[in-house]
Amino acid sequence: MTDTNYRIQGDTGEWEVVIGLEVHAQVASEAKLFSGAATAFGAEPNTQVSLVDAAMPGMLPVPNRECIRQAVRTGMAIDAKINAWSRFDRKNYFYADLPQGYQISQLYHPLVGEGGIDVVPDEKNPEATKHIGIERIHVEQDAGKLMHDQHPTRSYVDLNRSGVALMEIVSHPDMRSPAEAGAYLTKLRSILRYVGSCDGNMDQGSMRADVNVSVRKPGDEFGTRTETKNVNSIRFVMQAIEHEAKRQVELIESGGTVVQETRLFNPDTGKTRSMRSKEDAHDYRYFPDPDLLPLELDEAFLEECRASLPELPDAKRQRYEAAGITPYNAGVLTAEVETARWFDALLEAGAAPAAASNWVASELFGALNRLGKSIGESPVTPTQAAALLKLVVDGTLSGSLAKQVFEVMLETGQDPGVIVEERGLKQTSDTGAIEAVIADVLAKNPGQLEQYRGGKEALFGFFVGQTMKAMGGKANPGVVNELLKKALAG
């Protein structure tokens, strides 16, 4: 079933799921949004808290220029409207991990307006893309964290995250299947990593999603949506959508009504549960933050942000395809910025694009998977890989010999040229030596020779194999084929 035709089968027929995502991405900055406190992950509780983060009386927030810059760069990367004038608002609510009693956010005038990204919902069909609209990106401060497992009767508060800068990236309700939502999150995380505005590490909480789901009969008005909060993996987002859509269909078909509420996803059961009924925005008593002037961005700042952007995944993918790389390989190589940078270095070292892409997608990825390493930890450098591929192109190594040399490179980190010389692995095109081996192979296999000359041409492969085996895989296959044809015709 294709993603555009994803349907929930209910007792009363087919239902369509409507999905929107609000992604909270932690801005890559060494300091918080309104204070100089550190943001490093994994610090001891309450060791990265300034007087501003703890809401001590008289403390005033000062915007961190780097956080604003990173949010603007992100907006530019998704082709969004950058608002030269934006404003911070106070969102008032009481919770134990929110020292101020309000969160500084941007409701009415966000930093970034309308944008969007193109996604590929089905990897097997890389040509079929879907555009997902993005409504806005606003900048806000994170709350702290309640710790319930430190004491039998008390909850502790860790304010290390309090005041950390977040970009809230709000999509339009344009997704119609779990796969589309997964593709959107994957692509968005990839863009954030290319830009360098967020590390995208969902397991560390630096990127998480609130998942809005509703169901309707195809073509009807939107139904009532629920919001499943703080889902921290792409797989869990897809599971939450699937469960929540089915739950809503069953509820409606049994005569119930979907209520607008906040829900939580349990990864252990794969189910969502109700947390609280959804508050309307006016309950938060939003108003402009009196301690902060509006943000006014001049053209020089915007131009600096624009000039700092790297080549982004879609542009890189198009460049790869134009160089003769298959759409599938281009998609694989551009999915993660680390992979794309490694591959670009391989091309810069002189490797031919199409052959290099096939080698990386099969040989290198296979080896790294076996070793449990990322491409950044590869024992083989792009320069070494380019040298290995060059030895295949110039005939020094056959494909099978290149595999042997690659295995040694993985173990030792040596250059391929050194391995070839030290171990005598050079492919031979010496016609005299090859002819002598062919003559010996034919003499030792008279029965097969007779069958071949009697019309059983499939035995040609047998003779090639025997010749290559006798020469330890070091004979040039092209030369072997040519000389064998002559010898067998004799």
TrEMBL record:
It is an enzyme of class 6 (ligase). One of its GO terms (molecular function) is ATP binding. It catalyses: L-aspartyl-tRNA(Asn) + L-glutamine + ATP + H2O = L-asparaginyl-tRNA(Asn) + L-glutamate + ADP + phosphate + 2 H(+); L-glutamyl-tRNA(Gln) + L-glutamine + ATP + H2O = L-glutaminyl-tRNA(Gln) + L-glutamate + ADP + phosphate + H(+). SMART domains: GatB_Yqey (SM00845). PROSITE patterns: GATB (PS01234). GO terms for biological process: glutaminyl-tRNAGln biosynthesis via transamidation; translation. This is Aspartyl/glutamyl-tRNA(Asn/Gln) amidotransferase subunit B.
